[in-house]
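Outer membrane protein beta-barrel domain-containing protein, pasting as requested.
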Amino acid sequence: MSLLRSSLLAFALFGAFLLSHQASAQREIYSDSIPFKDRLYFGGNLGLQFGTVTLIDVSPLVGVMITPKLSGGVGATFQYYDDNRFYGAEGTSYGGRVFGRYNILPNIFAQMEYESINWEAYDYFVEDYRRTWSNALFLGAGYFAPFGNRGGANFTFLYNVLHDNHNSYYAEPYVIRVGFVM
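Structure tokens follow.
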């Protein structure tokens, strides 16, 4: 295993260890007198895949409860990938997102998210890879599974309404995410 892979694996395992501790859920807001710091929540996604296609995804986020049902926030994404099936299909992707979430029911929410990712796309005209930005506007819904007093896991299904088969970062217009918040 290369030094880069070993370092990324150690970093990913450390991140998984941090996320595995009992987390706190999105804050319950009962009045406008709740201080801003108590309305904040932190979390994100961690993805690991090893084999012919290796993928390590670290995507932290921070959000704020605006009302008892509405929250919004920002997040970042860093991914390392290595697809052994193709020459040159190894690299990194990075970017950010801004999102809004509305709780329809206590554990069911609707979500809208704008994401921009910088990645190495294959340019068929020059037959080589080039770095480019790809934007996505996701609409979808999710389920919040609470654990502990304030922690929980989010299971989210999102659909990219800006998906373009030739220029989108994701191969399909839909994305399924599992993340944690505290």
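Note for the archive: The longest strand covers residues 128-146.
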